[in-house]
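quick one before i forget lol
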Amino acid sequence: MEDATGSDRQKALVTAAGGMPILGPNCYGFINALDNACVWPDQHGLQPQTSGVAILTQSSNMGVNITMAARALPVAAIVCVGNQAQIGMADIARVLIADERITALGLHIEGFANLRTWEALAQEAAHRGLRIVALKVGKSEAARTATVSHTASLAGGDAGASALLARLGIARVGDLPTLLETLKLLHHCGGLSSNRIATISCSGGEASLSADMAHDMELEFPPLNARQKTSLRKALGPMVALANPLDYQTCIWRDTAAIARAFSAMVDPEIAMTLLLVDFPRVDRCDPADRECIIEAAIATHGRTDGVVGMVATLPETMPETIAERLAAGVVPFLGLHEALQAAEAAALVLPVADDPLLLPNARAHTPRLLTEAEAKRAVAAHGVDIPCAARIVSVNAAAEAGVPFPVVLEAEGFAHKTEAGAIAFNLTTAEEIRTAAEAMEAPACLVEEMIAGTVAELLVGVVKDPAHGFVLTLGAGGILTELMQDRASLLVPATADSVRKILGKLRVAKILLGYRGAPPANLNAIVTAIMAVQKYVLKHAEGLEGVEVNP
């Protein structure tokens, strides 16, 4: 169990240090493989480097494990940041990326602090053209609990974390092997020009496996163009069915020159990366010499083409480090097909760094007040949100005489989910129908509103204060579909109209908004205008604001 006096002791340490920098506490320190400097209390597996990636982690044990990885990944520096009592992860990262020998930056993050420093890091990395990739934990409730108890970091909501990383131009991956494989790819090429890839293997099973694994990723296997088909036909003959992914079979096996011609024929300017799928035999039980032709052909392909070439072992353990190191002179050696595809997806992702500073929440404690629906609608309407004609009433008879144009909707106040509570009635066309509905609700107050018909879709627009990440703007399918579809995406405030439009296009409900199967489309300009009006309200009233939700 953690010592209850730990926080006070940490404050005392910082005070005693004065101007002396403190790394941690509660961390292993750092290894600088570029300058052979090391403050580290345990074994490590790093070797001196002339250039390479930098990795920062909030877990010292993970830091040790990373140094032991046999992946032919040149780690130039690794820093464990611990509690970040005085120096934060972003502060350290800014120092590291100022060194031209650092080729990419990898982060294992449990929580964010000092968002302004993170914004500065993003701007400096973008200016240098250096890519950052992060493994951010905290998706699960268990992970969030462990984070708070481990480092006292404020984990916040995961939607806010994803939105923050995207805003900072940082690609997010979901596991440690993918983080390392992505860094390897970024070290070699600095990022991919697109998400268009090709794979070539001597197995139809591997060809279909690569296509299936990439199915739910933002990757494309473009059809072979005329130049590729002609060159591949010359290299492989008439027996091979040409496609991408390609099974080139084994008719040219052990013919290094022929294999190199086939590999080179697959590489094309329209492809961001070509992956050669090869698994190697166990050296303790088998003779690896039969794969020598593949290694030489891959290296030759790199020498005769301008494209990014990777060699992938579908199983991580079937590429020995000695082979990976031979390839790494020009061919990216990937350990694991799934990891390689995820690395390609992350490396192809170009996330522009936002120019506007984040709207940061006020940390002062306050007691929030929940506005009634009528009050809330008047508040957002004052900032440009169109609302239906409405009247708030307090009695059954007043409801019937509200004077709102028919047909109307009657809503009882005080319910978060009105449909389930029987607190809403639609399409009322007479005073008697309003009176009957109001009596059935037995509510102390009701809202009588003009009913809007002929809608294309219902959308949720919400903003919540996330103490760890800022104000999170969430867009998604609305109404009764909100919980059912779980179709939503998030940005941080302030968001631009262009970013709002882009994120709307990523929703599943976007097909309906654009006019699904001949149905009339929605007015996207009006939707974006309404969302920006909600944001305008948030920017004006951020002091003390907890959240805003518009959900029909």
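fyi The longest strand covers residues 102-109.
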